[in-house]
Amino acid sequence: MRRSKFSPQQIARILKEFDTGKSVEEISREHGVSSATFYKWRSRYAGMNPKELKRIKELEMENARLKQMYATLALDHQMAREVIEKKL
């Protein structure tokens, strides 16, 4: 999973700017993000404080790591099963 170049605090600050009245185009130009990224952040993180945002990011990273571990173990299990079946 690709890491964002923005910290959770920066994302929260960018979303607050929109709440204070800046347009999406201004925010996009100023911070170098696309409007699609901004709307994705807004739908995902609206109403959260930076601490909650940071915790969600950590959980998403841990989830990705666990999924990768599971995929590796499942592949190892499948290979071991094939080897055992060939020997019998």
Please sum up the structure shown:
By secondary structure, the protein is mainly alpha-helical. Helices cover 78% and strands 0% of the residues.
Description:
- It is a single chain.
- This protein has about 90 residues and is mainly alpha-helical.
- It has 4 helices and no strands.
Attribute tags:
88 residues, mainly alpha, 4 helices, 0% strand, elongated
Mind sketching the topology for me?
Blueprint: H1 8-19, H2 24-31, H3 35-45, H4 50-87
- First CA to last CA: what distance? 40 Å
User: Could you tell me the mean pLDDT?
Assistant: 89
Task: Report the radius of gyration as a whole number of Å.
Answer: 20 Å
Largest sheet: none
